[in-house]
C-alpha cells in the first residue's frame, strides 16, 4: 500500500496527540524520549520521587572514613561516596560529648549529637517511612537505598577516660535504640540493624563485655586476638584494628618482604577464623603510588575495611 504525503502527516499528528506533547518530534536525529524526560523533570512530577531516595544510586563500599569529622560535611560527605563506616572522636567534658581530634579542635556546637545522632535519625526517618506499605515491616532499612540491609558502622573513638565516657555514649545512642536502629546482641542472638556502633580508643573492654543487651561493641586489637584472657568473636567485636605502620611497616615503595606479607595474612586470618573483619589504620598517604600499593596489597590479602583519609580516591580505587 502506498501512502500519500497527507496521510503520513495525519498519522504523525495523531500519534503526537495520542501520546502527549512530550513525545513530539524534537530535534532531528535526537530520540524524542529526551523531550519526555525533560518535561517530567521540569514539572517536578511525583512519578520521579520516592521516599527513600536520599542515597539513590549510591553503592555502599567497605571503606572506613578515618576522622570523619574532618570532612567538609561530617557523615554526609562519606555517605555521598558510599562509605559504609565512619569514625567520630568523642570527648566527655562538662556533661557533653564533643567531637574533635584534640582539645584545641573542640567547639561548643560540634557535638556527637549534632554531627552524628541527629543527622542519622533524620536520614533513617526518610529511609523508613511509616505508611500502609511498611505497616508490617519488621526490619528497619539502613542508610543506603541500594542495599537497605547494609548497616552503617559507627566507630566511636573515646578520647577521655573510657569508664566515665561509656555511660554518656550509651545515653547518647538512646534515640537510635528506641527506634531499634542499633545492631544488638542479646539472648545469644546477634540482630543486625541500620547502625552498628563500635567503641574504640579508650573504650573499656570490660564495660562492653558487661552490656546486656549489648548494642555497643568493641574494636578488638587485631594483633592480639589470641590473648587467652578474652574470647574475641563477632558478638563482642565485629571489627579488629591495628596500627599498620607498627604492625607491618612496609611503606609501599619497593617490594614487601615475605615476613611482612606473612604478618598481614596471619593477622587477617586470625580475625576471619573468629568471624571478625580486619582493618589496618595509619597506612601511608603519600606518595600516591605508595598509598595505592599498600591498599592493593591489603585488599588482595583479604583486609575487609579500607581505612582512608582521601575518600574520593578510595571510592574510585
UniProtKB/TrEMBL annotation:
InterPro entries: AIM6_PI-PLC-like_dom, HAT_RTT109-like, PLC-like_Pdiesterase_TIM-brl. It comes from the Eukaryota. Belongs to the AIM6 family. This is Altered inheritance of mitochondria protein 6. It comes from Lentinula boryana.
Amino acid at each position: 500500500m502506498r501512502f500519500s504525503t497527507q496521510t503520513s502527516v495525519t498519522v504523525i499528528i495523531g500519534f503526537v496527540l495520542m501520546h502527549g506533547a512530550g513525545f513530539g518530534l524534537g530535534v532531528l536525529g535526537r530520540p524524542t524520549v529526551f523531550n519526555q524526560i525533560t518535561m517530567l523533570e521540569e514539572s517536578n512530577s511525583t512519578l520521579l520521587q520516592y521516599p527513600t531516595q536520599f542515597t539513590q544510586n549510591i553503592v555502599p563500599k567497605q571503606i572506613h572514613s578515618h576522622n570523619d569529622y574532618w570532612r567538609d560535611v561530617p557523615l554526609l560527605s562519606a555517605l555521598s561516596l558510599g562509605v559504609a563506616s565512619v569514625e567520630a572522636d568523642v570527648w566527655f567534658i562538662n556533661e557533653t560529648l564533643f567531637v574533635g581530634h584534640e582539645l584545641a579542635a573542640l567547639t561548643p556546637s560540634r557535638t556527637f549529637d549534632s554531627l552524628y545522632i541527629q543527622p542519622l535519625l533524620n536520614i533513617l526517618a526518610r529511609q523508613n517511612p511509616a505508611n500502609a506499605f511498611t505497616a508490617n515491616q519488621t526490619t528497619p532499612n539502613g542508610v543506603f537505598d541500594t542495599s537497605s540491609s547494609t548497616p552503617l558502622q559507627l566507630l566511636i573513638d573515646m578520647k577521655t577516660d573510657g569508664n566515665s565516657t561509656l555511660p554518656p555514649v550509651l545515653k547518647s545512642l538512646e534515640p537510635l535504640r528506641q527506634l531499634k536502629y542499633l545492631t544488638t546482641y542479646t539472648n545469644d542472638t546477634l540482630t543486625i540493624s541500620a547502625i552498628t556502633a563500635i567503641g574504640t580508643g579508650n573504650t573499656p573492654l570490660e564495660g562492653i563485655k558487661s552490656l546486656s543487651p549489648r548494642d555497643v561493641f568493641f574494636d578488638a586489637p587485631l594483633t592480639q586476638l589470641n590473648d587467652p584472657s578474652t574470647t574475641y568473636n563477632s558478638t563482642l567485636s565485629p571489627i579488629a584494628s591495628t596500627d599498620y605502620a607498627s604492625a607491618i611497616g612496609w611503606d609501599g615503595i619497593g617490594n614487601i618482604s615475605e615476613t611482612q606479607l606473612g604478618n598481614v595474612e596471619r593477622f587477617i586470618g586470625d580475625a576471619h577464623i573468629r568471624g571478625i573483619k580486619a582493618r589496618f589504620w595509619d597506612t601511608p598517604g603519600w606518595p600516591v603510588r605508595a598509598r595505592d600499593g599498600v591498599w592493593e596489597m591489603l585488599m588482595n590479602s583479604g583486609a575487609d575495611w579500607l581505612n582512608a583519609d582521601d575518600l574520593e580516591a578510595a571510592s574510585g580505587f
